[in-house]
Amino acid sequence: MHKVLSLAIVATVFLTLSNAWADDEEKDDAPQDGRPVVHTSSPQDVYEAKLSMLESRVEAKRNYCKATGAKGLDYCSKEADQMEREGQSRLKAELKAALAKQPAP
């Protein structure tokens, strides 16, 4: 009887864990921060996605500048501004090149 009870407990725990693991696998495609997943299909979509990532990096840099305090804040902010300008011009150039490669409608 003791062996049967132990086997039943082990089987229950195993099934519970395997179901939890299966549920977790289904949720892996969803982002953790609640934003929707965007599937890109056009150069404009790719541009907008990369621009969004650039904006996030620049915002993180600015937050880092604020968190480090007043020492070097001006230099750090200028660096973030430069990163934003250079990134935007690079992305615009990539978008132009990608649009030029597309066949005319």
Structural account:
- By secondary structure, the protein is an all-alpha fold.
- It is built from three helices and no strands.
- The longest helix is centred in the C-terminal third of the chain and has 29 residues, at 73-101.
- The protein is flat.
- The mean pLDDT is 77.
Main features:
flat; 105 residues; 3 helices; mainly alpha
Termini distance?
76 Å
Percent of residues in helices comes to over 70%
Low-pLDDT stretches are: none
**Mind telling me the C-alpha Rg?**
25 Å
State the order of secondary-structure elements, H for helix, E for strand: HHH
Biggest β-sheet strands, sense, barrel: none
Q: What value does the average pLDDT take?
A: 77
Strand proportion: under 5%
Judged by helices, strands and strand pairing, the structural class is mainly alpha
Count of helical stretches: 3
Summarize the structure in short.
This protein is mainly α.
Topology (SSEs and partners):
Layout: H1 2-26, H2 43-68, H3 73-101
Helix pairs in contact: 2-3
